[in-house]
Amino acid sequence: MSKDVTQRFVKPHDLNLAWQFGNLARGNEHAVRLDLCCFLIGRIVDPEFNQLGAVTKLEALAAEVLQAAEHSTEGRVERLRQVLFDEHQFRGDTDTYYDPANCCLHSTLESGRGMPITLAVLMIEVARRVGLDLHGVGAPFHFLVKYVDPESQDEHFLDPFHAGREIDRSALTERLRATNRGAGPNPESFLASVTKRQILQRILTNLKGAGVRKRDYFAAITATDFLLALSPWSLEDRRDRGLLCYQTGQYIEALDDLQQYHTHAADAPDADRVADFIERVRTRIAEGSG
Fold first, then answer.
1. How far apart are the C-alpha atoms of 35 and 278, rounded to whole Å?
2. d(CA 238, CA 258)
3. How many Å separate Cα 137 from the centre of its chain?
4. Distance of CA 260 to the CA centre of its chain
5. Domain holding 115: CATH number?
């Protein structure tokens, strides 16, 4: 498989963004800046947004948290929750949940609304600026954040989609058991911290899905370019980009992606379906050159 998976017929600006994103997001876990990576993702939806204004807003929120600084970790987290959700009224968007803007940190900062994972990034980034260490939790129903009390070593789970309210661990575990109906992984495995790269991957997957739902296939392709910049050997994303390129009439690019997927995932359950698509693409190319 070609090592460079972003050499396609795309706008040079979009290609450059994906390259920048890959460089930022593939660094050491502690060095990865979620806010800057999310701002690059935001340019897929809104290329001209004011990044300096978004960073300034994050800094201003952090300054408000520090104005009434608490000594204990629990007290500082509560102050963070008050500033974001009581005073600034950040909330989950239940009306237009799948709007691509809800995947963008800068849009959430502007509108006060977002998806669970976007609001989680908001909490994590403001917390980082005030010396708090919050982590993302990839629960199957929706994304959460958690922190560890340094004195008791207890984990506390917060729901950013619902005003940062704390969820009792035992209630959370029971909910996970009910969701899985006793099958699948141990519920405790869903309560582990996820990496920043996993957070970014989930945001981009949401954005790709939002683009497909709106039939904005070019935005979905760009989101997939970002995913491949993050994980260059993701065969599933390679396949998806090929299918999206087919939808937009980019048949040469579609053929390359789909052939690469079929070659390296010959035993995949959808191998026959992808083979059919490859024949369709070849037919389209032949018709165009006839």
1. 39
2. 7
3. 13
4. 25
5. 3.10.620
Q: Are 141 and 98 in contact (CB under 8 A)?
A: no
Spatial distance between the Cα atoms of 164 and 120, rounded to a whole number of angstroms: 9
Q: Tens digits of per-residue pLDDT, 113-164?
A: 999 999 999 999 999 999 999 999 988 778 999 999 988 889 999 999 999 9
Query: 269 and 136: one domain?
Result: no
- Give the global pTM: 0.90
Q: Of 200, 232, 230, 18, nearest to 105 (Cα)?
A: 200
Cα–Cα dist 78/123, whole Å = 11
How remote is the C-alpha of 61 from its chain's centroid? 22
Closest CA to 141 of 104, 165, 95, 177: 177
Write phi, then psi, for 145 (nearest 5 degrees).
-125, 160
Residue 136 φ then ψ, to 5°: -80, 150
Q: Where in the sequence is the domain holding 253, given as residue range(s)? A: 235-290
Residues in the chain: 290
The two tokens of residue 146 are 């958690």
Q: Residue 224 is inside which H or E element, if any?
A: helix 217-230
Instruction: Provide the token pair at 54.
Output: 């978004």
Last residue of a domain, one of 164, 191, 218: 191
Report helix angle 73-81 to 51-67, nearest 10. Answer: 130
Does a structural domain hold residue 226?
A: no
